[in-house]
Amino acid sequence: MKAIVQDTYGSTDVLELRDIDKPEIADDEVLVRVHAAGVDRGAWHVMTGLPYPVRLAGYGVRAPKNGVLGTDMSGVVAAVGKNVTRFQTGDEVFGKCKGAYAEYARASENKLAAKPSNLTFEQAAAVGVSALTALQGLRDHGRVKPGQQVLIIGASGGVGSFAIQLAKAFGAEVTAVCSTTKIDLVRELGADHVIDYSREDFASGERTFDVILDIAGNSSLSRLRRALTPTGTLVIVGGETGGRWLAGTDRQLRALAVSPFVGQKLGSFICREGYEDLLVLKQLVEAGKVVPAIDRAYPLSEVAKAIQYLEDGHARGKVVIVI
Ligand SMILES: NC(=O)c1ccc[n+]([C@@H]2O[C@H](COP(=O)([O-])OP(=O)(O)OC[C@H]3O[C@@H](n4cnc5c(N)ncnc54)[C@H](OP(=O)(O)O)[C@@H]3O)[C@@H](O)[C@H]2O)c1
Fold first, then answer.
1. Are residues 195 and 250 in the same domain?
2. Which residues contact 244 (CB under 8 A, 6 or more apart)?
3. Which end of the chain is more exposed for a tag (fewer CB within 10 A), N or C?
4. Ligand 1 centre and the CA of 149: distance in Å?
C-alpha cells in the first residue's frame, strides 16, 4: 500500500510517499481502508518530535516508532480482529487510528464510531481530535451553560471552528477572536460577536466572559484573567509559542498552580479520544448542529504541503487529505 513515511524527526522534508506492507491488526483492532484523513497541529508535533515531551509520550525518543504519520481518518472497515464486536467488514467509520496518511490503517475498536450518515468521508475525517477537543473543553472543563458569555480565542482554526458551533449548540452567546481575513468564516460558523485581534484587545476590560476557551495560546495568564468574570472559567487548550521543551505549556502549568487561590477557575486538559464522545459528535452532526468547515483537501502525495499550509497559519477551519 502507499503511505507517507518518516524515518527521522524533522521538517516536512522528512516525509516520503512509499510502498509499504499493509498493517497487521491485533485481536481488538480494525483494519480500515482509509478514504480521507485529517490534518492537525498534532501531525506537525509528531513529524518534528517537538516539543521533546512528545517523544517521551511514546512516539520514540531518537526516531519515530510508528513511521506512518496521521491519526484522524474516515474510511471503510476492511477486516476485524477476533475480539471486535462493534464493527464488521464494509462498515463506514471515523475516528482515531495509527498511521492515517496511508491506504490502510489499524485502529482500536474503542477509538472508532460509525460515520455520520450526512457527512462525506472528507468531512468525517475532519472531525477527530479537533472536534473532540472543542467538545471536552466546553462541556467538561468549561461547563458551558445556556445564556453564558463564551470567548473563543483562535476561533478560525481546526479546534476553534468546531468550538464556535458547539458553544452555540450549548446555548451560549459566542464571541470569536480571529485575524481580519477570517472574520467572515467565524461569522458563518455562528459567532454572535467577532474581535479582530489586530484592531481590538479582548482584554481591554470593556467586556468580561463566563468561559474563555484559549486555543491560540499567545496571551499571558494575567490578560486572560482580566477578560474573565470574577468567578469565570478559563480553559487553555493549546499554545504554539515555541520552545523545544515546553512550547508554551508553561502558561498551563501556571494556571493550574494559581487556580486554587483565586475565585476564577483556571485550567487545561489533554483531549481523550474515545468512541463515546465520537458518538456525541455524530449525533450533533446528524442533527445539523455541527458541520465540519473544510478549507482545503490535498492528495496523499501532498501531505507535506498540507502540514506546511496549516503551520503557516493559512487554514480556515480544517485541512484534509483525500486517499
Ligand atoms: N489540549 C489538547 O488536547 C489539544 C488538542 C488539539 C489541539 N491542541 C492545541 O490547540 C492549538 C490549536 O490547534 P488547532 O488544530 O485549532 O490549530 P490551527 O487549526 O492551526 O488553528 C490555530 C488558530 O489560531 C489562530 N491564531 C493565531 N494567533 C492568534 C492570536 N494572536 N489571537 C487569536 N487567534 C490566533 C489562527 O488563526 P488567525 O489567522 O485567526 O490568527 C489559527 O486559526 C494547538 O496549539 C494545538 O497543539 C490541544
1. yes
2. 50, 51, 52
3. N
4. 20
Do 174 and 239 fall within a single domain? yes
Question: 238 CA distance to ligand 1 centroid (A)?
Answer: 7
Total number of domains constituting the chain: 2
- Domain span at residue 194 reads 129-268
Average pLDDT over residues 156-161: 97
| Nearest atom of ligand 1 to the alpha carbon of 197 | 32
pTM of the model: 0.97
3-state secondary structure of 258: helix
153 lines ligand 1 (CB under 6 A): yes
Q: Which of residues 230, 249, 268 is at a domain's end?
A: 268
Residue whose grid cell is 468580561? 208
Number of helices followed by number of strands (H, E) in the chain: 9, 15
Per-residue pLDDT reduced to its tens digit, 255-264: 999 999 999 9
Residues 46, 169 within the same domain: no
pLDDT in tens, 183-199: 999 999 999 999 999 99
- Give pLDDT tens digits for 34-91: 999 999 999 999 999 988 888 888 788 888 888 899 999 999 999 999 999 999 999 9
Question: Kind of pairing, strands 294-299 and 318-322?
Answer: parallel
- Check pocket membership of 310 for ligand 1, CB cut-off 6 A: yes
How many angstroms separate the alpha carbon of residue 219 from the centre of ligand 1?
12
Residues 79 and 139 placed together within one structural domain of the fold: no
Indicate which atom in ligand 1 lies nearest the CA of residue 133: 5
R_g of the chain computed on alpha carbons: 19
Please indicate, yes or no, whether residues 308 and 262 belong to a single structural domain of this protein. Answer: no
* 100 and 185 housed in the same domain: no
Determine the distance separating the centroid of ligand 1 and the alpha carbon of 218, expressed in angstroms: 10
User: What integer pLDDT is reported at residue 250 of this predicted model?
Assistant: 81
